[in-house]
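ligand=LLP
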Amino acid sequence: SRTVTRTPDGQVTVGGIEVARLAEEFGTPAYFLDEADFRARCQAWRDAFGPDADVFYAGKAFLSRAVVRWLHEEGLNLDVCSAGELTTALDAGMPAERIALHGNNKTPEEIERAVAAGVGHIVLDSFQEIVRVAHIADRLGKRQRVQIRVTVGVEAHTHEFIATAHEDQKFGIALAGGEAAEAVRRALKLDGLELVGIHSHIGSQIFDTAGFEVAARRVVALLAEIRDEHGVELPEIDLGGGLGIAYTSDDDPAEPHDIANSLREIVTRECAASKLRTPRISVEPGRAIVGPTAFTLYEVGTIKPLEGLRTYVSVDGGMSDNIRTALYDAEYSVALVSRSSDAEPMLVRVVGKHCESGDIVVRDAFLPADLAPGDLIAVPATGAYCRSMASNYNHALRPPVVAVKDGAGRVIVRRETEEDLLRLDVG
Ligand code: LLP
């Protein structure tokens, strides 16, 4: 990230602090998040989209009260997908009208809390949910602003588990076969709902922006159909998140302003062609904001050279703090950060301390051959979907998140303790 440098003796510093000091003060494994970088990325997204659009940070990537406050201060909105995320957002002072609620199976309790709190909009994900939200809003004497999530039928070129715009999956309502048009028909009839827009999210960790452009065109085409059938022009479209980030030097992600310019241009052009007023655009980046802002710091433990194969380097964390390698075959890089070394590079696999062989953090990487137990190594770009997907597998204690800024680290999510584990165990 922006404020990472290396001192002449090879120590990496982040936000002006040497990693050895960070390890001493906060322990390992730990995630270190560069607050200035996070804020700069928020600003880049806001600036790219401008005052006529909204940027909803996708809280699932990583959410904490500090993060909510930064988002609030930087003028971003927030997408939450559970009661837990909603509670965190409200507790940290995000105004309810700047929150959107997502999910393919929101419970009645979650819907009720969101409606009662007055969230900006709820994204409806199924025919059943249209009725469910309308009933709850009626009961609470409210009219809830909603969007309908459609699947536009584009194949996003990413891992199957994180692609969401093809039709054979659990999210959204298909544009194909008139399903989405029927959902709109039903939503417009219900007093408890104020249908304000159409939502599309095509997937995650996407580099080719063509998929977003196709989605934008198809969503605008639906707006035109809705205008023709019902005489209403929906004022909003949300094109979801999903912009990829660089995990290794092979990745070449688009910038927020590239995607903003191309979406704005397409939406404006298509709307003009259909004589529609240009709707307010919103987007929901998660990974692209928080992903690059953090790294995980590990201490090297057992080193096991396998003759003719590779060297297994075990660290003090693993799949409990980064499941992405095991789950998606995700690629990461790794660097020795506590000292410099002139030793030859050796082929390594960085593995965790968990009881299974799929517990891999970095599948293939090079580290200096003089690597030794006690060295500190860092895996960059772990800000998104690492702490948020962390587990207690093998009763691991989930690592802290430390915000680094102006030469000081501040714990924003503390390390779990054995007392935390035992507190939940009430048998
Ligand atoms: N909006 C919606 C409706 C979403 O479902 C998601 C992510 C986002 C926005 C944010 O997407 P992003 O900009 O972060 O790519 N655990 C997986 C990623 C799952 C993404 C789920 N939805 C991973 O670690 O790659």
